[in-house]
């Protein structure tokens, strides 16, 4: 199985409401024009898993890879 990464940095401009979900959906639609996926993993650049045992994989059901982070004293939000 191959592994591929597509990344981008998006920031808010102007006074419009920032809709992260809309941007992720648009990015996914554009990526589908270039590649065939059986799995897609989204995360913020500051939520990269800290534990190497936390594998990027494609289980049957969605899961959150960074449920507890140092910035929040390892508590769920």
What features would you highlight for this structure?
single chain; about 80 residues; mainly alpha; 1 helix; flat
Overall pLDDT score: 74
Radius of gyration: 15 Å
Q: How many strands appear in the DSSP assignment?
A: 0
Biggest sheet details: none
Tell me the β content: under 5%
InterPro entries: Galactosyl_T (IPR003859), Galactosyl_T_N (IPR027995), Nucleotide-diphossugar_trans (IPR029044)
Protein name: Beta-1,4-N-acetylgalactosaminyltransferase bre-4-like
Organism: Octopus vulgaris (Common octopus)
GO molecular function: galactosyltransferase activity; N-acetyl-beta-glucosaminyl-derivative 4-beta-N-acetylgalactosaminyltransferase activity
Task: Tell me about this structure.
Pfam families: Glyco_transf_7N. One of its GO terms (biological process) is carbohydrate metabolic process. Residues 9-59 form the Galactosyltransferase N-terminal domain. GO terms for molecular function: galactosyltransferase activity; N-acetyl-beta-glucosaminyl-derivative 4-beta-N-acetylgalactosaminyltransferase activity. This is Beta-1,4-N-acetylgalactosaminyltransferase bre-4-like. The chain has 77 residues and is mainly alpha-helical. 19% of the residues lie in helices and 0% in strands. The chain has one helix spanning 20-34. The N and C termini lie far apart (34 Å). The radius of gyration is 15 Å and the shape is flat. It is built from one helix and no strands. The longest helix is centred in the middle third of the chain and has 15 residues, at 20-34.
């Amino acid at each position: 199985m191959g592994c591929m990464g597509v990344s981008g940095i998006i920031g808010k401009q102007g006074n419009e409401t920032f809709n992260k979900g809309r941007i992720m959906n648009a990015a996914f639609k554009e990526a589908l024009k270039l590649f065939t996926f059986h799995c897609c993993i989204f995360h913020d650049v500051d939520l990269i898993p800290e534990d190497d045992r936390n594998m990027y994989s494609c289980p049957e059901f969605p899961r959150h890879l960074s449920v507890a982070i140092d910035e929040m004293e390892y508590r769920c939000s």
